[in-house]
Task: structure prediction
Amino acid sequence: MTARDSQLRSTAEDEARRDPSVPRDEVVVLRDVRKSYGDTEILKGINLVAKHAETTVIIGGSGAGKTTLLRHIVALEQPTSGQVFLEGENIVGLKDRELNRVRQKVGMIYQYAALLDSQNVLDNVAFPLVEHTKLSKKEMRDKVVDKLKVLGLDESVLTKFPSELSGGMKKRVGIARALMLEPPILVYDEPTSGLDPLTSRMVDDLIEETRERFQVTSVVISHDIASCFRIAHQAILLIKGQIVARGRPDELVNGDSDVARDFIQKSGVDVRHVSRVPKVGATTGG
Result:
């Protein structure tokens, strides 16, 4: 079977798995998702839609259920009840083998990049290709170099180890690794946590540049209100396992939800002075 035949077969199989009730532009869909551990209910009827090539930012304080929600989106947990769709496929109830296939649709960028300290940049970024493809070492290296170049890093970083990289470079390497299998979805876990304000804003720029260049659907778990206002097409406020407000960031500030306005106000961020990340290639007058 040729590569093209394999791709056509994979596309046909994906179509067969698609639920016709899910619109094509709705890439991540949760319907009435509930999750309990024993008698404790963590997620309480979550309904969520993340659309193609848009950024959805899920904000909330400690104990809101953000991490549990993230684990459902990346197919690491199954809900107690409800439905989870990735690209139109309901992943609830799938066996481990099928879940492993589904997980390749999601690129995960962890809080501190989660690079392997004992491996250089080349081996870190190539790791998904080693696990899931039969490419030659040269083909893997070429793919790694291509992704790093798009993300602003040249071949000189290939032999460096994580301890030799700046915080911003680690983020870029982590995103490159997440993109290696060309997933339609990227999920970021607290991407600006622990970073200084300047580096945090650079990470915001990188998230949006990546979304535009690769047309991925981005889901960001965050407590960073400034970041939310810079990158979110949709902001979702999660409190005690429930979505209490959703919409564009400005709609959360000016909307009917007292809880949302209070949450944003208590963050200490003056959102009137936060500007959205400009589009790739856009210039500003001066």
Q: What stands out?
A: Residues 228 and 273 are 13 Å apart (CA to CA). The chain has a mean pLDDT of 89. The radius of gyration is 19 Å.
